[in-house]
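Show me any protein, keeping tokens residue-aligned.
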Amino acid sequence: MKTDTGYQIQGNGILNETHITTVAAELRLQARQAQAVATLLAENASVPFIARYRKEATGSLDEVQVAAIRDRLHHLRELTDRKDAVIKSLAQHGHLNDALRRQVLACQTLTELEDLYRPYRPKRRTRATIAREKGLDPLAVDVFAQSGIDPLVVAEPFVDPEKNVDTVEDALAGARDIIAEQINENAEARQAMRNLFLSKATIKSTLASGKEQQGAKYRDYFDWEEPVASAPSHRILAMRRGEKEGILNFSILPPQETAIELLRGMFVTGEGPDAEQVNMAMQDAYKRLLSRSMETEIRVATKTRADEAAIKVFAANLRELLLDAPLGAKNVMGIDPGFRTGCKVVCLDRQGKLLHHETLYFHRSKKEDQKALDKLKELADQYHVEAIAVGNGTAGRETLNLASKLNFKNPVQVVMVNESGASIYSASAVAREEFPDLDLTVRGAVSIGRRLMDPLAELVKIDPKSIGVGQYQHDVDQTKLKQALDDVVSSCVNGVGVDLNRASVQLLTYISGLGPQLAENIIAYRNENGPFASRATLKKVPRLGPKAFEQAAGFLRIPDGKNPLDASAVHPESYPIVDAMARDLGCTVHDLMADATLRNKIDLEKYVTDRVGPLTLKDIMHELSRPGRDPRQSFEAFQYAEGVEKMEDLRVGMRLPGTVTNVTAFGAFVDVGVHQDGLVHISQLANRFVKDPAKVVKINQKVTVTVIDVDVERKRISLSMKSHPGETPNLKIS
């Protein structure tokens, strides 16, 4: 069924054939691929599900491509909705005709649509509307025609003191106001001016009066100027934040004479006194209306561009952090270190359950240290600890060094863990619900220990925005940021898969087809009935219907279930195919998964059907060979340089091991174990020109850096990854 606006209703969503054609062309896809994705999205299929289990339909599009189709269709729907609103407004005010309707429907962007609509939009009372009320519109028409008339003569009949038009000049001033507004609302002029601003405008930032001390962190922007076309996202966002805080004055303008000459060429067509009136109106239009309007518009455009770049960086960093290598299911001790308040120590079992907690006091005296170490060793032996996770905050290095020297009964890994986000978790509703009677610091120690075991499972409990691996995340469009980060978390969770009998409600929430309510229902069912024996049992969970089961089942794992396929990424809808393969070979499914020789005997073409093609069968065979294997890298412990524990220990020229903690548009931050991350500026990332730091380094990557500057007072460390630190690479000539 089709709506009046050209939409086609299908399932629970809306499709538009024109939109699908447009998206396919823009993304260089086949129309059938875009159509298939649009149809599946309209049926409430998730991006991970479409990419993983509907490859035949989409032509094997990945998650990035599926999400791009989704986002572009959403944008086009918004454009269509706005067109409907504009047409309705034009009709209500008597402006609509067939030609104008066609123009509206032909608009390809919101900007083009708003330019077209601007002259007809209901306005507040302006200088031009006041002039029209005085009856000066005909005079403006005559002057704007620039036919060689004498404006003084033509304006004489419009003098009317009763209308507050006392003189000829008053009449001409009103006519110029009308002309200025017409120039401002001219779609071609606005597009030409928009192009000029984008190509020739400069961003200028200056210090607001009396704000030098208050705005010290914005010192670089006290007197700054650069082309808007090349200004990087982090500088745009920094200057805008400085303006918001009242520290900086911020403007975006092209050379005024260039703008005026452009408009003069468009609107001043004569040489007489009437043309001079138009020239005056044109200059007024630019200075009073167009320049301000365009500056506002370009501010929005540059902000949007900066937001997109910052969100892209944040999303990439978050993905790397979430997919950090897990230690796995081991008995872990978590330590939130501290000097004055002591070290909060927790012991966790292999499922992350809290078994014990207490406070130990190190760093006071040798006697106290020994007493605390003896207790630490006792706890490690008592709870069969296999690894110790030490937070990298205050007293982290000192505590790590003490624990590393202990002789435990059994081998114990002592690992420093990035505790970013642990404090956020400890104060969250999730932590309060899980540990209502525990101190914040104890909850933080639990988070540190669990993060070593499984970073993904722990970090999903925290608002992604609070994890701290982006730049200016509080300044960007929050709706777009949330969408991007949710996409990343969902992609990571579904890509790794979740143990159905161990997963938290937060982890289950991100599984395709679930959400908070169904996740809670699964936990409640598990608590009441015990562990799930099979994926099929999910159908007994209240409100978990066939559609949710279809979307979720393939991403949920039961390692020790009755059916060995329940531990794999093979979707239950494909179980009959695997059963048929085993039956044809005269073996069990378990035999098939364990024996590569048996799998090599399978002729896949035999199992191709109308619904199952070669792509799905290939995925099934791949999964049978490595069922449920974690795609993340194996865990490797990292060691900082001995004797380097605080900034004062650093010396220029030192070569140190470190881990990348954040990647930004201007470089990367590296933890070298001194409680303050150092910056490897983009110019120091490699021996070659680097345009994008993310192409060189990733979050949690192990690197070797050279110290090139230390500012203890400002807590700034400058590092280099170049073979000859400090040198600036040759700039790329474009």
Summary: The chain has 29 helices and 17 strands. Residues 655 and 714 are 22 Å apart (CA to CA). The longest strand covers residues 655-664.
